[in-house]
Amino acid sequence: MAGSSEVFVKAEIYEGFRVTRVVDLPSLRGQARQFEHVKTGAKLLHLSTDDSENLFSITFPTPPPDDTGLPHILEHAVLGGSKRFPLREPFFEMVKMSMATFINAMTSQAYTVYPIATNVKKDFFNLAEVYVDAVYFPELTEQTFRREGHHLTLEDNQNPTSKLKVSGIVYNEMKGAYSTPESLMYELASRGLYPDTPLGRDSGGDPDIIPELTYGQFKAFHQSLYHPSNSLIFLYGDIPTAEHLKFIAPTLDRFDRISSVIATPKQPRWTAPRTVNKPYPIGTGEDASARSFITLNWLIGDAMDPAEVTAWSVLDRILLGNEAAPLKRAIIDSNLGADLFFSGMFGAAWEYEFHVGIKGSEGDRSAAFETLVLGTLERLADATFDAGRVEAAFQQLSYATLEVTSQFPLRLLGFVNDAWPFGGDPLTFLRLSEHLEACHQRWQAEPDLFNRLIRERILGNPHRLTVVLTPDRQVQQQADDAFASKMAAKREAFSPVQIAEIAASADALQKAQGVANTPEQLARLPQLRASDLPQTPRNIPTTVSRIHGIQVLRNDVFSNGVNYLELDIDMAGLSPELYAILPRFCEAVGKFGAAGQSYETIAERRSSCTGGISCSAQVMRHASDPSQNLRRLRIGLKTLDGQIGPTLRLLADLIFSVDPRDKKRSVDVLEQTRAGYRTALVNDGMSTARRQAARGHSREAAIEHLFLSPPALRRIETLLNNFETVSDELIHQIEQVRDHLHNRNRWTISFTGSDNAFEILESMLKEWSARLSDQAVIDLPVPFEFFNTYPREGLAGPMKVAHCVKVMPAPHLSHPDVPLFSLGVYLARFDLLLPEIRFKGNAYGASASLDDGSGVFVISSYRDPNIVQTLAVFDRLGEWVDRAAWSQIDIDRSIIGSAKGVERPLRPGEATSLALTRFVRGDTDDFRKRRYQTALSATPKSVKSAMQEMFALYAPRSSVCVVSSREKLDDANAKLGAGALEISDILP
Ligand SMILES: [Zn+2]
Questions:
Q1: What span, in angstroms and rounded, lies between the C-alpha atoms of 64 and 221?
Q2: Distance, CA 786 to ligand 1 centroid (Å)?
Q3: In principle, which of 470, 488, 674, 819 could form an S-S bond with 935, CB 3.0–4.6 Å?
């Protein structure tokens, strides 16, 4: 058995911990060791394995008492300073200077978890030390509460007549979250099933309710729940268990046991279905047609019963798991809307749900949708499921039990927390493969198992909620007006003296955020030294060969019986107007038929033999040659050992003969894309702003803008509106792209997996090679115009916050100063942008990054209540660099923080893809090593002069884009004067 060879005897006591269980978990190649801390009752589980990426986590069950977001605000606040580390934001300081592969805190529906993971043992205990002190001994000052939670402030604290408003980081974060119909639907359709229990409340916080939370409630909540008696400590990795016990025991010993009664009350079941109709806001100029959302939602059962949950996961796959799955197909074919939405089985803490929904619909179609869904399920309950389809569902689910994914320890923590915080056995969902096997046997003994589940739990279940969300152009205005008059009334009730106090304390709060930690304060934090870093970056062991004329990389990374293949196809020479069609080609690969078979047949083949096939278009710069602009198509797949043959045959059918001629299918897919683009452009407003502002800085950025942007959405609309006349041209273009692929000199394959699978791949390559041409690849330059004036734009959409972005060109990766510039960018992010934009401005996020793939430097804010103030911070960056007085310690911290990407263990899927990208970009191990060593020898002076040189060159060429509501953009423009933004709508 893997894991450390320590022996723990049940019922014996080690370091004050009694052993409660020791179990081998062969499918995870480890041993689970469970303990209870005798004095306090704290529970500890170590999953001991050979993995060097160790995880430390503490979970507290925190069922929300109301909708004020208490658990969420507390989650933010405990990381804001503690007894032993009484400095400003120890969390962000540790993010900045540790090698953590993961460091964060998360509030789920009914628990709060504090995990860190790292590959460096010394770093592990450093981070754990800070986290343990943070959760058990936080300072929780009133200032922290006000900043993270909510506080009153004036629009302009220097002007006593300006408007009163509410601010706070969680307040703004949740305002951002509540902006979207998707999250509104989640609130209504999932929490709506539990009106009488904590699962019906919002642990994140409803922005309308957050301001009701008091500092006293906040402190009391911490005191009663963040206690060892209520602690679940999960550890993972190769650090010996004894060291963990020794580390944590002294802290726990300082507490006495309290009684911990976490109730997990079951929602009383309804006797009749319910319906909710709600408007959601869209912009005043937007088209409201085909913008409604309808969902049917059922409360199904007990989320801690693994047999039930597993059976439902299988049924979910059978009904909805691929393009040909019967319920999915019935919904798409009905044309009641554009695409499925919010569909499948979800767990909500101790209960679980089943949902079927549609987007891109009309509000008056809810009865028709209900009839369609119930009728289809009725029919399916009476029919016999095709055994192949059921086997395919089991096949799909087996990846979850085998795959060593990225963030693997965190994924295991997720499984543990599917049961542990609600009083369940923490190992329940770590035993997924056993449950799947048991479910398979159960199905063989009871062939009507899935029919019965449909009949009993869906059709015969009155605990059903129908939710209809319809677009409304007035509702935002009404909500804004109601809020404004509420604030006006509140303002009325305050005396001038009180208003002055509000302004003064909000001002003081802001000012306090601007003070950086002193070197003495920082020295209190346990930290790595630059000398703890390895001298060379971690490489992926890859062998490159040419097999039957095709370039093949084979990566030697453990992959646990799953095989990963990624194919990179050089698109050089494609006629330039076809680049905009690449996403359509990828949709054809994912959703159409091929080789004379219908899309249904192809979808079934895909789900019976693969864990998925992906296709995407990529553009990037060559790593050492600035003149090379790489435009590629990427096709990736994963498959089990026994399935590699059929998988590769399917891949060949798709690449050689994908067939875009089914026009009915084409319309359905374009409608799905339109609905998807609409959601993506608004919900990921930061990326929308980034692509918009970057498009004239590099050829790569221009092509990315072609793929997804407001104009790309308009092109989809045009295709749909004129489908009859343009469809033949579209089909022809997709076929041109397809035929362009058939040249072996364009192909590079990256493979990770077993010898047996590799042999099958080799023989397949021989067949493929014979079908591919052997022409030289000649590029056709893609026409491109750099910005000649640098735009300042605003994109208006339905949202309550802003995403601000400033983009400038970046030096090419081959410039010798790039590693130094990157360190300066890292410091700017943590020392200027986060304090000014997050801590003072109360935005949820702020960042700066060098994107060497598309050749741009991007500064951004995320879910930001401010526009003018944030743009001013962006503009100060150059001056901040001029004034920076970094010490070698600052530089060392940024080296360590930046190096975490280099030391991160690569899991097989990610390694397959990254090895390929590095290879095609010419980013060799030698080149990476040179860059790494330049960083290791950085000094304050070299970083500063690299930054100054870059800013002198590039800052005058900056473009700006802000995505926000029309009102907020107009407001900002009133103050921006000559720098006003040119505003247009995101959505047509
Ligand atoms: Zn948060």
A1: 10
A2: 38
A3: 819
**Type and span of the H or E element at 106:** strand 106-107
Q: What is the rounded average pLDDT of the residues 873-887?
A: 95
- Are 87 and 93 in contact by the 8 Å Cβ rule? The answer is yes
User: pTM (2 decimals)?
Assistant: 0.92
CA of 324 to the centre of ligand 1 (A): 38
Mean predicted lDDT score pLDDT of the chain = 94
**CA 539 / ligand 1 centre spacing (Å):** 35
Do residues 959 and 807 make contact, with C-beta atoms less than 8 angstroms apart?
Answer: yes
Ligand 1 centre to CA of 100 (Å) is 19
What pLDDT, on a 0 to 100 scale, did the predictor assign at position 535?
86
CA of 109 to the centre of ligand 1 (A): 13
The pair of structure tokens assigned to 17 is: 């911990």
End-to-end CA, the chain: 60
CA of 150 to the centre of ligand 1 (A): 13
Q: What DSSP character marks residue 517?
A: P
526-552: pLDDT as tens digits: 989 888 888 888 899 999 999 999 999
Question: Residue 843 corresponds to which tokens in the numbers above?
Answer: 């935005």
Q: How far is the CA of 43 from the centre of ligand 1 (A)?
A: 26
User: Residue 2 — very low, low, confident or very high, per pLDDT cuts 50/70/90?
Assistant: low
Using one digit for the tens of pLDDT, what is the confidence trace for 933-944? 999 999 999 999
Strands 613-621 and 550-555: unpaired
Sign of CA dihedral 64, 65, 67, 72: negative
Give me the mean pLDDT over the 449-478 stretch.
95
Kindly give, in sequence order, each residue whose CB lies less than 8 Å from that of residue 176, ignoring residues fewer than 6 positions away. 799, 800, 801, 844, 862, 863
**1: confidence class by pLDDT, cuts 50, 70, 90:** very low
Q: What percent of the chain has pLDDT over 70?
A: 100
Q: Locate 520 and state its tokens.
A: 């003495």
Give 291 Cα–ligand 1 centroid separation in angstroms. 29
- How far is 3 from 695, CA to CA, in rounded Å? 50
Please list the residues that pair with 550 across neighbouring strands.
Answer: 547
Spell out the residues 6+ positions from residue 392 whose beta carbon is closer than 8 angstroms to its own: 317, 321, 322, 604, 607, 608
Sign of CA dihedral 954, 955, 959, 961: positive
Contacting residues for 815 by C-beta, under 8 A, at least 6 apart: none
Residue 349 region, left (φ>0) first, then alpha (ψ -120 to 50), else beta? Answer: left
Return the structure tokens found at 166: 């509410």
Q: How far is the CA of 845 from the centre of ligand 1 (A)?
A: 10
| Residue position matching structure tokens 């743009």 | 871
- In the numeric block, the tokens 């703890």 are attached to 532
Cα 371 to averaged position of ligand 1 atoms, centre (Å):
39
Mean pLDDT calculated for residue range 858-878? 96
Pair 582, 618: CB distance under 8 Å: no
Q: What's residue 596's pLDDT?
A: 97
pLDDT-wise least confident of 86-90, 234-238, 247-251, 565-569: 86-90
Cα angle 448, 450, 454; round to 5: 115
Assign 99 to helix, strand or coil: coil
Distance from the alpha carbon of residue 659 to the mean position of ligand 1, in angstroms? 45
The closest alpha carbon to 233, from 131, 83, 90, belongs to 131
- The 10 Å Cβ neighbour count of residue 850 is 19
Residues bordering ligand 1, an ion, CB closer than 5 Å? 173
Place 783 in a pLDDT band, splitting at 50, 70 and 90: confident
Give the Cα separation of 668 and 337 in Å (integer).
9
Determine the residue type at 751. F
Q: How many CB atoms lie within 10 A of CB 825?
A: 24
Cα 490 to ligand 1 centroid, rounded to whole Å: 27
The total of other beta-carbon atoms located within 10 Å of residue 413's CB is 25
3-state class (DSSP) for residue 122: helix
Q: Angle 888-903/818-828 helices, nearest 10 degrees?
A: 110
